[in-house]
Amino acid sequence: MITDTPREKELETRDELFLAEVKDKRVAVLLSGGVDSSVVVWEFARLGLHPDCFYIKIGPEEKEEWDCSSEEDLEMATAVARKYGCKLQVIDCHQEYWNEVTRYTMDKVKAGFTPNPDVMCNRLIKFGAFDEKMGHNYDLIATGHYAQTETDENGDKWLVTSPDPVKDQTDFLAQIESWQLRKAIFPIGHHIKNEIREIAEEEHLINAKRKDSQGICFLGQINYNDYIRRYLGEKPGDVIEMETGKRIGTHKGLWFHTIGQRKGLGFGGGPWFVIKKDVEKNILYVSHGYDPQTAYKKDFPLQDFHFLTREVAMQKVTFKIRHTPEYHPATIEKLEDGRWMIHSEEAIHGVAPGQFCVVYDENHHRCYGSGEITV
Ligand SMILES: Nc1ncnc2c1ncn2[C@@H]1O[C@H](COP(=O)(O)OP(=O)(O)OP(=O)(O)O)[C@@H](O)[C@H]1O
């Protein structure tokens, strides 16, 4: 007798839930040409569904060499949509990206903060500008993010982490509006990356062997420093050793550096860590050593905390300040001025103002939301 493995049973139950969620709904799939969103289309097609697919176009300002990877993406997306009998349309969000995400990024870096364009791209573009242009015609917007959702007994929808700790992307979704979360579905979020690759290979998807996209979404091959240099240029200033006040070199612009940074500083006699930026005086402060205490923090405040579903009385939580697999345990306290204070159990390296601190429940299951680290 053939019996299903627990994983197979789990996937069957998941299929039933998925079908119930999408049945009779108008679904738009955001298809990037990458393997994850291609498998999203397969998830629908194998259940006999053929949703409309959309490729969002966000090229650089002028036609130049930056553009080649997006042409390839569009070709792949076209081939995948065709394979599964879905329509594919290109939606141009170029202007919105450069107006909104780029403006946010440049404003933050100019003020000495460490922004996260990927986080804002989800809110402003994939679930924002796209919704205004096309998504409003649909009940649900499906993406290939590694994230899940669950609905509680009150009908509230929560963002839930994915079983693949390395790929989990709930942190990138931690600024989306609650109406955007209600519309979002993540059909591959219960899978680990290897399962997606296996499906893609079995299905002979054109992009099965393609490398994962890296760095800032939509910017393709552009290096982050080039992106910033293009808008803000260079602004050289002194680099000073925090402990001694000694000038040890010159930086090309504070915006090329982030607190906690070690690599790419280019001074001899290292290792050096970026500890502080003085934007007014244009000074970069660094510390020397393999693990300087100045590079760590346990307590730090968050401003403009954004709750994904609804406000929660948070106390014992876990959090992330970077896209890493670890969730740090902490307590969190609401301050009188409306900010929230993180008290981390362990000291955290490279806590930089401007970064989003993403907060989860104690078991890092539900993502509550995120706030911007402030000083
Ligand atoms: N240019 C695009 N057009 C349409 N949807 C996009 C585009 N870029 C990203 N997305 C959507 O956002 C999701 C997450 O994007 P991300 O940049 O993290 O890609 P990824 O993890 O490499 O996934 P994929 O393999 O699908 O590209 C994608 O799975 C896709 O649904």
TrEMBL record:
Entry EC number(s): 2.8.1.13
Domain spans labelled tRNA-specific 2-thiouridylase MnmA-like central: 226-288
Keyword Nucleotide-binding: yes
Single Gene Ontology BP annotation: tRNA processing
Reaction(s) this enzyme catalyzes, per UniProt: S-sulfanyl-L-cysteinyl-[protein] + uridine(34) in tRNA + AH2 + ATP = 2-thiouridine(34) in tRNA + L-cysteinyl-[protein] + A + AMP + diphosphate + H(+)
Enzyme class: transferase
Keyword Transport: no
Residue span, tRNA-specific 2-thiouridylase MnmA-like C-terminal domain: 300-373
Superkingdom of this protein's organism: Bacteria
UniProt keyword annotations, A-Z: ATP-binding, Disulfide bond, Methyltransferase, Nucleotide-binding, RNA-binding, Transferase, tRNA processing, tRNA-binding
Gene Ontology molecular function, alphabetical: ATP binding; methyltransferase activity; tRNA binding; tRNA-uridine 2-sulfurtransferase activity
PANTHER family: PTHR43052, TRNA-5-TAURINOMETHYLURIDINE 2-SULFURTRANSFERASE (PTHR43052:SF1)
Designated name of the protein: tRNA-uridine 2-sulfurtransferase
Provenance organism: Segatella copri
